[in-house]
């Protein structure tokens, strides 16, 4: 029994005032403290793996484990991606005992993962990379041993995956990485044999059709591909030739043309490439030299120029790099040291400075990292874009989509 009703109601009134104050400024306490979430796929060397989840401190970039982390995945999870609205996460499980994709809903407040009903979903043989189209409608998985790409439609309510008619789609040999252009019109897949396949995406079904001239030549053992937020350029990390192939993208056909000066030198065993959400900088994780190469991007040509101080030290065998949605921080998954290196990004130069407390512990053999903004922020962006009546089919829609990408709801490498 409450023996002091005045104190009880006084406390209620103070709580109400605090709630209204937070509502008026348009932010929750969590939103004020976090720049979103980070997810790391821990491959566990062929055993049953998991996903480490972290909140990102908006001020420092430091990582704090999400309650309940790590979250169970399949056998040897090799890649993690999130939907652009921050609601779902997908993990490609590469071992033959799995050969599937785990799907999760993301708790918008905590970042915790809950398996989607029906998960995991069947993929091809040795699925090593998963990507979600920026419009949130489709997911694509590169399967190494079956030499193909599995394509799925994403249930907007549940996050469940349904195979696209005609899936899987054949690949030349040993596909290693898949990425989708910001307008969701094109998909790109690196092939270990030394080239990049390009496809047009059917806007209704998600089906893939090879672009004329595909595949396009790359360097030695291309293992990672990403597309510039403007949709004008693509970048490929070549693991054996230790460099980055850069291309301009034909806006109509999706075809690739080498950027003048390409390829650009990287470190030893270049394993992953990512571009900042504002499109100014590119980062490459070098698994053999234990560092990260940083570049400024020429906005006109797409050419790469090393950032002063590059390369920057990472952990033992860095396999994956990602940039936070707000563009302030970079994260690198270090496979052998079982941790994540975190850096602040100099907004002017692109240089990297270790975040206090870095590196942050991960699970066994972390091989992939991605980030996402809080789901509430992504939802707000999507609603704003819908109110503006933008579409990818006209100039206004393209510019609006570029702005959405610049703000960024997720970014992975």
Which descriptors would you attach to this protein?
single chain; 413 residues; mainly beta; Methylamine Dehydrogenase, Chain H; 6-stranded antiparallel beta sheet; 4 helices; 36 strands; 13% helix; globular
Layout of helices and strands:
Layout: H1 5-25, H2 29-33, E1 34-42, E2 48-57, E3 63-65, E4 71-75, E5 77-82, E6 88-93, E7 100-106, E8 113-115, E9 121-122, E10 127-132, E11 138-143, E12 148-154, E13 161-163, E14 169-170, E15 175-180, E16 186-191, E17 195-201, E18 208-210, E19 216-217, E20 222-227, E21 233-238, E22 243-249, E23 256-258, E24 264-265, E25 270-275, E26 281-286, E27 291-297, E28 304-306, E29 312-313, E30 318-323, E31 329-334, E32 339-345, E33 352-354, E34 360-361, E35 366-372, H3 375-387, H4 395-407, E36 410-412
Antiparallel strand pairs: 1-2, 1-35, 2-3, 2-4, 5-6, 6-7, 7-8, 7-9, 10-11, 11-12, 12-13, 12-14, 15-16, 16-17, 17-18, 17-19, 20-21, 21-22, 22-23, 22-24, 25-26, 26-27, 27-28, 27-29, 30-31, 31-32, 32-33, 32-34, 35-36
């Amino acid at each position: 029994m409450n023996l002091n009703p005045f104190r009880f109601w006084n406390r209620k009134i103070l709580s109400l005032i605090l709630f209204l104050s937070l509502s008026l400024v348009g932010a929750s306490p969590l939103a004020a403290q976090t720049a979103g979430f980070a997810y790391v796929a821990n491959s566990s060397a062929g055993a049953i793996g998991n996903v480490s989840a972290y909140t990102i401190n908006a001020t420092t970039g430091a990582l704090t484990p999400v309650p309940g982390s790590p979250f169970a995945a399949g056998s040897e999870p090799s890649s993690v991606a999130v939907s652009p609205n921050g609601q779902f996460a997908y993990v490609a499980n590469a071992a033959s005992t799995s050969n599937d994709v785990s799907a999760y809903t993301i708790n918008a407040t905590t970042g915790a993962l809950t398996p989607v009903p029906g998960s995991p979903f069947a993929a091809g043989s040795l699925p090593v990379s998963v990507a979600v189209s920026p419009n949130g409608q489709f997911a694509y998985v590169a399967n190494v041993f079956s030499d193909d790409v599995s394509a799925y439609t994403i249930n907007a309510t549940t996050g469940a995956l349904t195979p696209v008619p005609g899936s899987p789609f054949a690949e030349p040999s040993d596909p290693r990485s898949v990425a989708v252009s910001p307008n969701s019109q094109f998909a790109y897949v690196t092939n270990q044999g030394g080239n990049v396949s390009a496809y047009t995406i059917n806007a209704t079904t998600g089906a893939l059709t090879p672009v004329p001239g595909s595949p396009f030549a790359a360097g030695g053992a291309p293992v990672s591909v990403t597309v510039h937020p403007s949709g004008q350029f693509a970048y490929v990390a070549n693991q054996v030739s230790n460099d980055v192939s850069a291309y301009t993208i034909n806006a109509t056909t999706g075809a690739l043309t080498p950027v003048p000066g390409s390829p650009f030198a990287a470190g030893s065993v270049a394993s992953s490439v990512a571009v900042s959400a504002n499109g100014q900088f590119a980062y490459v994780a070098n698994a053999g030299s234990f560092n990260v190469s940083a570049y400024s991007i020429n906005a006109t040509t797409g050419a790469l120029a090393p950032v002063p101080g590059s390369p920057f030290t990472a952990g033992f065998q860095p396999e994956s790099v990602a940039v936070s949605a707000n563009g302030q921080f970079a994260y690198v998954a270090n496979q052998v040291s079982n941790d994540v290196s975190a850096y602040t990004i100099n907004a002017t130069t692109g240089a990297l400075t270790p975040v206090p407390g870095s590196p942050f512990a991960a699970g066994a053999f972390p091989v992939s990292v991605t980030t996402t903004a809080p789901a509430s922020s992504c939802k707000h962006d999507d609603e704003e874009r819908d109110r503006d009546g933008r579409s990818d089919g006209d100039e206004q829609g393209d510019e609006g989509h570029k702005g959405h990408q610049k703000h960024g709801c997720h970014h992975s490498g």
